[in-house]
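Q&A log
Question type: sequence-to-structure
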Amino acid sequence: MKKIKKYLLNGMRIKTLTLVEWQVTSISSEETFVTITNTGFIGDKVVK
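Response status: OK
Response body:
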């Protein structure tokens, strides 16, 4: 596998700044593997 691109996006939420990272990896000439990681968020209240 060969990593070909990496994207970092900042997402603005109320009182919180989140980071979204996309890693795009070429598996073959016809296949691509994408990993998406979202960090820095605290989430919503628990709904019961």
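Response note: The chain has a mean pLDDT of 74.
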